[in-house]
Specification:
Elements (H helix, E strand, L loop, with lengths): L2 H20 L7 H8 L3 H12 L3 H19 L4 H7 L5 H12 L3 H9 L4 E6 L2 E7 L7 H12 L6 E8 L9 E8 L10 E5 L2 E9 L5 H12 L5 E3 L4 E5 L12 E10 L3
Antiparallel strand pairs: 1-6, 2-4, 2-5, 3-4, 3-8, 6-9, 7-9, 8-9
């Protein structure tokens, strides 16, 4: 696929994901979302899967459950209310889907997040990562990692996958994200991949075991609940995601991600 064509398709698919994010509970269909992308339904589904690495149904479920996870973190509303808000007909169907994706029931996840105590302080050394800037909604970040892997020819032992996060995804104008690799050894330059220094320093680290869709609500808990009571302040360095899984796991309980927020000591 030519670069200009790929960029055009990515913009179109980005509009589709934005439509899902704007109203995840809506009765989205292949036909309605194909119209958003200005593609025929037949071609749309093939292009969508190629661009995102998943089916439309999988995206809908993931986005709905990620939004539900954020609502559970906020403790705003009952499980039943949240289930209906994100498009499920019953709390039972929501609970089954949530457990399949996260490994926990909604109430277990809520209790785990509200009692987030497994935070450690780490001194992270400076590193240099080979990065591809993400373009589009955060729901399509996984595709950016797939493109990174294809361009770098990644395999076992290639190095540490890292996400570099600047700003708040809820404020798109100030948000940027890089999918990166800290290589285990020298790698030849690759067009479109930039070398990016990652500053070292003090970080608050939390190990998330569960689906990648839980990364955003877990960061929200770290910044909104843990940090204000910690005696530390946020530093100006990027937040980091360190992916510890060997490959992209199929089961949520096999996803292991270290979430690091940059901190400095607050005023006495």
């Amino acid at each position: 696929m030519k670069p200009d064509t790929e960029r055009d398709y990515r913009r179109r698919i980005g509009r589709v994901v934005e439509a899902i994010l704007a109203d995840p509970a809506a009765p989205h269909s292949v036909d309605s979302l194909a119209a958003v992308a200005h593609l025929s339904p037949f071609h749309f589904h093939r292009i969508y899967r190629a661009m995102t690495g998943e089916s439309l149904a999988e995206t809908l479920r993931r986005v709905r459950l990620a939004m539900a996870a954020r609502r559970l973190v906020d403790a705003a509303g009952s499980v039943t209310d949240i289930a209906l808000e994100v498009g499920y007909d019953s709390p039972q169907a929501f609970a089954r889907a949530f457990r399949e994706v996260t490994g926990w029931s909604p109430s277990e996840f809520q209790q785990r997040q509200q009692a987030l105590t497994a935070v450690t302080l780490v001194e992270q050394p400076p590193v240099e990562a080979l990065c591809l800037r993400h373009d589009g909604p955060i729901a399509t970040i996984l595709h950016t990692y797939r493109v990174l892997g294809q361009r770098l020819g990644l395999g076992p032992g290639s190095g540490q996958l890292i996400g570099i996060v600047l700003g708040d995804p809820d404020l798109p104008e100030g948000f940027s994200y890089w999918a990166g690799l800290v290589p285990a050894g020298p790698m030849a330059p690759v067009a479109g991949i930039e070398a990016m220094p990652v500053a070292g320093g003090l970080y608050a680290a939390y190990r998330l075991i569960g689906a990648y869709g839980l990364i955003a609500p877990s960061f929200e808990t770290l910044y909104g609940a843990w940090l204000p009571q910690s005696g530390y302040e946020p530093d100006d360095r990027p937040a980091l995601e360190l992916y510890q899984s060997i490959a992209i796991p199929q089961a949520p309980q096999d996803c292991v991600t270290d979430l690091l927020i940059p901190i400095r000591k607050g005023p006495e």
